[in-house]
């Protein structure tokens, strides 16, 4: 019994000693991401238990983010829509600039919209692979980013106040042991006036009035000019408008709309409309809905000529493009399936598209596929104008400003809020009778929205 106890104590002591040495050796290893294990087996003497004693030790190592801190990644051009193949780069950042995650590094201007390229992570711009204004395609490398190399620039914090107890007196002699020897000269107090031009008073001559006037004229009358490269959107707009003039046989017909009833309806129901739908009731929804109603009754205005196959394509749906002016050019986001919408749906869609246009977030899909366009120049104070067709469409409606004018009502002259409207159409497909009927239908619906309820 005593022999077996000594054998067990000796075996246990050896196991602990070897196990501690093994763990110490494993602790010195630096293999990242691996799990290490050591199995130790001791054979007992004949007087001991023949079963081996085994010990298994597992140590897990973790990789920290330091390994990825200075990693350099290459950011590629995002994929474009099917109808867009290339674009021009406009850089917002330069080499060496610090960017935060999702911060816009550049914009790619295409024929129809601008695509923003954000930074995938926080870091520093290492290299720009495309020059400013260069042309890129989808998937092409844009720039290199060193991840985690810096932090976004923060506002400069005010310097901490100097300690009060340790500050010596102003006229006390500094102690050589404590105060270091100054290495720079004290600042020179500012001298009033221009020291470089200091001259005796007798040498200074007063400036004559004609000389001063000539100097002012030379400054204000400078004839200068600057050149700015046209962006791709503006170039594409110019190209499409010129193509419309050369392809379509454009003709314009006019009419005027009495806005009294629609203004009265808006005045009576705008508060209830806002409370229920959480959006304001405007005049644009009335013209969009009136256009959809007229397009279903005049299919030719909603159709288009396919010049390739020499066929006329008639659509049984209404997708109305609404022209929106932006600093980079005219964009036409599309309101789809307007024939199925009510006033609230139209107002919500117009508001959402307008917000995306102001934030420069319109995608190509938001502007593809319109069958008819409405341009509202009245928001800028336009009184009269002839819009140009947005190809490949066949017609466009132009809205203008609302002005009080004298009109004949029931044999009497009254002052009414009137708006001129214009319809430009492709005379190859749409005859004058259809165009005039279409415009009169819009006039009837806007002047009396009950026509929609009666389906007249």
TrEMBL record:
It is an enzyme of class 2 (transferase). Pathway: Amino-acid degradation; L-lysine degradation via saccharopine pathway; glutaryl-CoA from L-lysine: step 6/6. InterPro entries: 2-oxoA_DH_lipoyl-BS, 2-oxoacid_dehydrogenase, 2-oxoacid_DH_actylTfrase, Biotin_lipoyl, CAT-like_dom_sf, Single_hybrid_motif, SucB. Pfam families: 2-oxoacid_dh, Biotin_lipoyl. CDD domains: lipoyl_domain. Belongs to the 2-oxoacid dehydrogenase family. This is Dihydrolipoyllysine-residue succinyltransferase component of 2-oxoglutarate dehydrogenase complex, mitochondrial. It comes from Clupea harengus (Atlantic herring).
């Amino acid at each position: 019994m005593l022999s077996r106890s000594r054998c067990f104590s000796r075996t246990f002591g050896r196991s602990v000693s070897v196990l501690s040495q093994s763990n110490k050796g494993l602790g010195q290893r630096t293999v990242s991401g691996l799990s290490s294990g050591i199995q130790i087996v001791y054979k007992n003497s004949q007087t001991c238990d023949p079963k081996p004693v085994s010990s298994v030790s597992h140590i897990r190592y973790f990789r920290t983010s330091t390994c990825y801190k200075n990693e350099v990644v290459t950011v590629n051009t995002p994929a474009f829509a099917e109808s867009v193949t290339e674009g021009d780069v406009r850089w917002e950042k330069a080499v060496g600039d610090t960017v935060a995650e999702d911060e816009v590094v550049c914009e790619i201007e295409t024929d129809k919209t601008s695509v923003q390229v954000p930074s995938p992570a926080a870091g520093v711009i290492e290299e720009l692979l495309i020059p400013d204004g260069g042309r890129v395609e989808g998937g092409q490398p844009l720039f290199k980013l060193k991840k985690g190399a810096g932090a976004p620039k923060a506002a400069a914090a005010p310097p901490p106040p100097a300690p009060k107890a340790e500050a010596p007196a102003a006229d006390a002699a500094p102690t050589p042991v404590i105060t270091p020897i100054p290495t720079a000269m004290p600042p020179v107090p500012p001298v009033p006036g221009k020291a470089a031009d200091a001259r005796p008073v007798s040498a200074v001559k007063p400036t004559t009035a004609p000389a001063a006037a000539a100097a002012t004229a030379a400054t204000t009358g400078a004839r200068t000019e600057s050149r700015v490269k046209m962006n791709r959107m503006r170039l594409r707009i110019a190209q499409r408008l010129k193509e419309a003039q050369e392809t379509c046989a454009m003709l314009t017909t006019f009419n005027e709309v009495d806005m009294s009833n629609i203004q009265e309806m808006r005045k009576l129901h705008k508060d209830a409309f806002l409370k229920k739908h959480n959006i304001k009731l405007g005049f644009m929804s009335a013209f969009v809905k009136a256009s959809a109603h007229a397009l279903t009754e005049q299919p030719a205005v909603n159709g288009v000529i396919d010049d390739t196959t020499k066929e006329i394509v008639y659509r049984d749906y209404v997708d109305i493009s609404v022209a929106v002016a932006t600093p980079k050019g005219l964009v036409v986001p599309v309101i789809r399936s307007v024939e199925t919408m009510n006033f609230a749906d139209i107002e919500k869609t117009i508001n959402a598209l307008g917000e995306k246009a102001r934030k420069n977030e319109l995608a190509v899909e938001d502007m593809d596929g319109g069958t008819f366009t409405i341009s509202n120049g009245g928001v800028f104070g336009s009184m009269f104008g002839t819009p140009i067709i947005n190809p490949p469409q066949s017609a466009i409606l132009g809205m203008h400003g609302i002005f009080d004018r004298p009109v004949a009502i029931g044999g009497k002259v009254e002052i009414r809020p009137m708006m001129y409207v214009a319809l430009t159409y492709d005379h190859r497909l749409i005859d004058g009778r259809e165009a005039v009927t279409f415009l009169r239908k819009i006039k009837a619906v806007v002047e009396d929205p009950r026509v929609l309820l009666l389906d007249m």
